[in-house]
Design goal:
With 677 residues, this protein is α/β, with parallel strands linked by helices. Helix content is 53%, strand content 11%. Helix 10 runs antiparallel to helix 12 and helix 15 packs antiparallel against helix 19.
């Protein structure tokens, strides 16, 4: 019996000239122990064959003639040890792109398992498909076939491809399925065409998304070699470059495959739409459309969160790059996965909710709610422009991050590395083909998801790294840069305390885990203030005076001025913002939230509330009636978010709003804003 992990390690070695145990661990997502065990088993398994696993200076490589395609032949009749979920995925795709009659015997031979196992797998697959309005059925005339809407079959295939590529066995599994049938069309052919013509057409691939897209298209084209229904795509404008690329792919596919007719305009539209999800940023589609959409998202984000983005131009530039492929993914119903989603939601719960709300313009144009996995990417984008200045930490080294998987993945990697290496200044993120734009004297080291050509030390990384992998990375970098280790006092004291009372067998791994824990705790502390911490009895006022809107803002902010949270400049700055930008502070329902920038006179985060017996009118406009003012002083772009999120939830409740407007004393307010920590 052959464990699928062995196959994964072998394929990974084949795809790379040589790899260390650490690099194999990152590439395969296995522990270093598992990788070492796989290499030992491979050495034994290959001992009687013409290929070998060699080692030189701690790096492993394959000698002999072998490629992915004949790995299947190498395995022969050996039984494969595959996880059940992987087997279900392979059965679906095998049936999806079949060219002939499929029986239980075919599944048994294909998966190298028993008859009872395949029958059990088919029952499980049928159950899983029901949630997607699909079914798998057997008939004497046709064998096993997939029943349901053709587009749903395609979307299910993309979902399976997505899950496989996010698993260690994915690449082998997909190649195994495609090679099981005599198709003239392969992923390698389509990928070579895309890589060649992307440069000519000035397209910027998102490596992982494009790979997923091309495998999906490969399977669809394999399926289309039979007489099956074709997906009729809705008319969606796609970039002319990508339409040209789709035509090139389909024309070549027609020459290679056994199609009963040429591709229709609808087929070309459909394939072009799918391809659009795999490229970043540059597009010939009306750029103003995506620029307007980006502007709406950023404006809504600033409005609901009271955040100010000082590098708004750069933020919008990166957001557009990310937004365009997301738009097409959502429009065509393609699956989205992000291993980082749960971590982002846990670390930035308040920011996540604000970003989710700010994406309403995107949700409207695609006609669908935005999945959490996509929201998480946007959180990374916005969050990257909310970081406090870290001038207190001396930066001894400069690093470049290389990642061909788009700006979002690059930002995630940067965030992880920033935790591990506080003494490193990350001067930029770039694609493989753009690394040469950095001069040698501008950086000291490179972190990359792929091997790059550089004379500087380079280290393999991925978006999601285990504690063990992070520990290994720190050791590797520290070996090359002995002065890198910051020797964090708090961390070292904590580690010494643990060692006094417990035996520590994996000290380096524990150090990384503690570093991550301390960082996450610091992140949580930065957004600690709750709404009831800020709106206290001292911060509440009710007034029966008749006054103008400017005096009302001054009066509303008076408690914060008296407490020293703001300077005398801040109320005037809030008034100036209304005069400059109009009554943007009016939330409707008779409520306004005056605010200005932290640099306009904020000493400490604060909120104050003023309930008016006689309404005021912003800019003396009768249409801008206000009965409740809530002044907010934000010291930065993070600390006030938790309190603001709670306030936003209250203001969405009309009954609670009415209670706020009629509150006679602070206890009435306290009851509404009371919240468990």
């Amino acid at each position: 019996m052959i464990d699928h992990k062995i196959i994964v390690v072998l394929i990974t070695l084949l795809a790379n000239q040589s790899l260390s145990l650490y690099e194999l661990s990152v590439k395969t997502r296995f522990s270093i122990k598992d990788v070492r065990d796989c290499i030992n088993q491979l050495t034994i398994y290959l001992s009687n064959r013409e290929i070998k696993i060699e080692q030189d200076k701690g790096r492993y490589y394959v000698t002999g003639i072998l490629d992915r395609k004949n790995i299947t032949t190498l395995i022969g009749s050996e039984e494969l040890q595959l996880p059940k979920r992987i087997r279900l995925h392979l059965i679906y795709l095998y049936t999806f792109c079949r060219t002939d009659f499929v029986s239980n015997w075919h599944y048994k031979d294909f998966l190298k398992v028993s008859k009872n196992t395949t029958l059990s797998d088919i029952r499980s697959l049928r159950k899983n498909l029901q949630t997607h309005h699909l079914d798998i059925e057997y008939s004497r005339s046709q064998g096993y076939i997939i029943l349901g809407d053709e587009k749903q079959k395609h979307l299910m295939a993309f979902k399976v491809v997505n899950e496989l590529l996010n698993s260690p066995v994915g690449l082998w599994g997909l190649e195994y399925v495609i090679s099981a049938w005599p198709h003239g069309i392969t992923f390698e052919i389509l990928n070579k065409l895309v890589q060649d013509y992307s440069k000519i057409l000035h397209l910027t691939p998102i490596s992982n998304k494009l790979q997923e897209c091309l495998y999906g298209i490969t399977l669809i084209l394999c399926r289309y070699q039979r007489k099956v229904s074709r997906v009729v795509s809705e008319e969606i404008e796609v970039p002319s470059q990508i339409r040209n690329l789709a035509d090139i792919l389909l024309d070549n596919a027609y020459d290679l495959g056994g199609f009963d007719s040429n591709f229709t305009q609808s087929d070309r539209q459909y394939i072009a739409g799918l391809l659009s999800s795999g490229f970043e940023g540059n597009t010939s589609v009306d750029f103003s459309y995506f620029k307007t959409l980006t502007d709406q998202i950023v404006e809504k984000m600033e409005s609901i969160s009271l955040l100010q983005f000082s590098q708004q131009g750069t933020l919008k530039e990166n957001l557009i790059k990310h937004l365009i492929p997301v738009y097409y993914r959502l429009k065509f119903g393609l699956p989205s996965s992000n291993d980082y989603t749960d971590r982002i939601k846990e670390q930035h719960p308040d920011l996540f909710e604000f970003v989710k709300e700010s994406l309403e313009p995107l949700s409207k144009v695609v006609g669908l709610p935005i999945p959490d996995s996509e929201i998480a990417y946007f959180v990374v984008h916005f969050g990257g422009y909310l970081k406090k200045n870290e001038t207190s930490t001396r930066k001894n080294y400069r690093a470049v991050i290389v990642c061909p998987n788009g700006t979002s993945s690059s930002l995630m990697i940067k965030e992880n590395l920033r935790i591990l290496f506080p003494q490193v200044s990350f001067i930029g993120v770039t694609r493989v083909d753009r690394l040469h734009e950095f001069k040698d004297d501008e950086f000291d080291l490179v972190f990359s998801t792929v091997k790059v050509e550089t004379q500087k030390p380079q280290y393999l990384v991925s978006v999601m790294m285990s504690v063990e992998q992070s520990s290994q990375l720190v050791q590797l970098v520290s070996k090359d840069f002995p002065e890198m280790d910051p020797k964090d006092i708090e961390l070292e004291r904590l580690l010494e305390l643990i060692k006094r009372f417990a035996s520590v067998s994996q000290e380096s791994e524990l150090r990384i885990a503690l570093k991550n824990f301390i960082y996450e705790e610091m992140q949580r502390k930065e957004v600690l203030p709750l709404l009831q911490d800020l709106i206290t009895e001292k911060m509440f006022q009710r007034s029966s005076e008749k006054m103008g809107w400017k005096d009302a803002i001054r009066k509303a902010s008076q408690p914060m001025l008296e407490s020293g949270q703001i300077t005398a400049n801040y109320p005037e700055a809030m008034i100036g913002k209304v005069e400059e930008f109009g009554p943007f502070i009016n939330l409707g329902k008779g409520i306004a939230i005056p605010h200005a920038r932290p640099e306009d006179g904020v000493n400490e985060v604060g909120m104050s509330m003023l309930v008016l017996d006689h309404p005021i009118y912003l800019l003396d406009d009768p249409a801008q009636e206000i009965r409740l003012l809530i002044c907010i002083a934000a010291v930065d772009n993070q600390t006030h978010l938790k309190a603001l999120k709670h306030l936003t939830m209250i203001l969405r409740d009309n009954a609670k709003v009415e209670r706020l407007l009629t509150a006679q004393e602070f206890n009435d307010i306290k009851e509404i804003i009371q919240q468990e920590d």
